[in-house]
């Protein structure tokens, strides 16, 4: 009598095609167990991959005469893990690649049997899961560890180990075993687990062991928790391993600023010296700058006054009457208006004595040039003599 998901006969009828989904880099266990009440030896097992059109079928592995041989690109990645004596030709495919997606067909032949027993498994491959986790201090993180299999295999043990790097020793993060006497763990697993050392009371087994899931959650992450975490799932003599690298981000403490929380800023010694020096320098230089500006203004006024007085004195010496008139004009400006005087070039007055013995003198009178009359062509003040000199009044 034959039971299970297999067919008998030369027509190679396949009655079931279970599906399996894994990530790139993980392992997949594809079961192929022939259950029969007849005690016959399994003489040959073939595993074929059909990736679909237009690719051709290719051999994955074959077993014959107690020899298991992986083929082509599946060398060092595919192995027969079933118990041949119990008609178990299950295949373990490690480090799954994207090109491994497709339909895997197992063919089992028994001694003195012309019939072929077949089973197909559809493998779906997802993108690679991140092998590195970034976690902030104080947060929690989940580390997955799932062994994908089409067959119900009983997990015998789950180990999680931590290593911060060479030459540090490995630390036990968590251990699961159905026969552990420590009653700690999630009830759905039907077993117990224990964690030790600094991970005690911070690590919980959250995966469903009945589905080959040994995932854990690490709570209250500390900066010292950064490193590699390796999971090992034991299914009898078969061991599946997965490593996750944990990076811990140290955050700067953030304070909520409130009126009560405000406090004076404590300056360092260098900052305090610089501030005091700037203040003192400013206080010392300010009076000096003010004194320099004040003296400069005084010097300018003094030079201007001295020049004006000397000019008037020279004019008065040359012509006393004109000098008095200039002094009077310079000292008494017209009420409410500013006078603008034009520059006058004086000519040397040569006194000539007439035959009668009398001398004749020529006097020059300065007239103010009003702004409103500078451009007036009819202004008699602006009229000049033919020689370019302003007109003069003669007194006899």
Report what the structure shows.
The structure is a single chain. Helix content is 16%, strand content 28%. It is of the alpha+beta class and 396 residues long. The strands form 5 sheets. It has a 6-stranded mixed sheet with strand order 2-11-10-5-6-7, with no helix packed on it. A 6-stranded mixed sheet has the order 12-21-20-15-16-17, with no helix packed on it. A hairpin with a 2-residue loop joins strand 6 and strand 7. The longest helix is centred in the C-terminal third of the chain and has 50 residues, at 269-318. It is elongated. InterPro entries: Ig-like_dom, Ig-like_dom_sf, Ig-like_fold, Ig_sub, Ig_V-set, Myelin_P0-rel. One of its GO terms (biological process) is cell adhesion.
Bin the strand percentage. 25-35%
Largest sheet strand order: 2-11-10-5-6-7
Which oligomeric state applies?
single chain
Category by helix and strand content? alpha+beta
- Mean pLDDT across residues: 75
Secondary-structure element string:
EEEEEEEEEEEEEEEEEEEEEHH
- Helical residue percent band: 10-25%
- Strand element count: 21
How much is the radius of gyration in Å? 56 Å
The helix tally amounts to 2
Largest sheet: 6 strands, mixed
Q: Spans with pLDDT under 50 lasting ≥5 residues?
A: 1-15, 181-191, 334-355, 357-361, 380-396
Globular, elongated, flat, extended or rod-shaped: what is the shape? elongated
InterPro entries: Ig-like_dom, Ig-like_dom_sf, Ig-like_fold, Ig_sub, Ig_V-set, Myelin_P0-rel
Protein name: Junctional adhesion molecule-like
GO biological process, one term: immune system process
Pfam family, one: V-set
């Amino acid at each position: 009598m034959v039971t299970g998901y297999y067919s008998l006969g030369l027509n190679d009828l396949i009655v079931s095609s279970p599906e399996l989904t894994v990530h790139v880099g993980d392992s997949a266990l594809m079961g192929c167990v022939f259950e029969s009440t007849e005690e016959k030896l399994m003489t040959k097992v073939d595993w074929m991959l059909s990736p679909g059109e237009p690719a051709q079928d290719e051999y994955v592995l074959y077993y014959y005469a107690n020899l298991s041989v992986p083929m082509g690109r599946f060398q060092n990645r595919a192995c027969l893990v079933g118990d041949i004596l119990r008609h178990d030709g299950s295949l373990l495919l490690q480090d799954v690649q994207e090109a491994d997606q497709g339909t895997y067909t197992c063919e089992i032949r028994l001694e003195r049997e012309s019939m072929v027993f077949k089973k197909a498994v559809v493998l779906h491959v997802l993108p690679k899961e991140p092998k590195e986790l970034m976690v902030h201090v104080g947060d929690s993180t989940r580390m997955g560890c799932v062994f994908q299999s089409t067959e119900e295999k009983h997990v015998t043990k789950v180990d999680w180990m931590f290593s911060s790097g060479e030459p540090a020793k490995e630390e036990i993060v968590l251990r699961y075993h159905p026969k552990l006497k420590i009653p700690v763990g999630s009830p759905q697993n039907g077993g117990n687990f224990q964690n030790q050392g600094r991970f005690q009371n911070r690590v919980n087994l959250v995966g469903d062991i009945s589905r080959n899931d040994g995932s854990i959650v690490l709570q209250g992450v500390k900066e010292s928790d950064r490193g590699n975490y390796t999971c090992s799932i034991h299914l009898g003599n078969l061991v599946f391993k997965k490593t996750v690298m944990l990076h811990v981000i140290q955050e700067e403490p953030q304070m909520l600023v409130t009126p009560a929380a405000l406090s004076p800023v404590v300056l360092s010694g260098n900052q305090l010296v610089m501030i005091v020096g700037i203040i003192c320098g400013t206080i010392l230089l300010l009076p000096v700058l003010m004194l320099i500006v004040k003296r400069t203004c005084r010097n300018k006024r003094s030079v201007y006054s001295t020049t004006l007085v000397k000019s008037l004195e020279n004019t008065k010496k040359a012509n006393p009457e004109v000098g008095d008139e200039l002094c009077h004009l310079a000292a008494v400006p017209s009420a409410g208006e500013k006078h603008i005087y034009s520059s006058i070039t004086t000519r040397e007055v040569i006194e000539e004595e007439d035959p009668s013995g009398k001398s004749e003198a020529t006097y020059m009178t300065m007239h103010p040039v009003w702004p409103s009359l500078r451009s007036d062509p009819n202004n008699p003040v602006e009229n000049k003599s033919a020689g370019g000199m302003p007109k003069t009044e003669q007194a006899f």
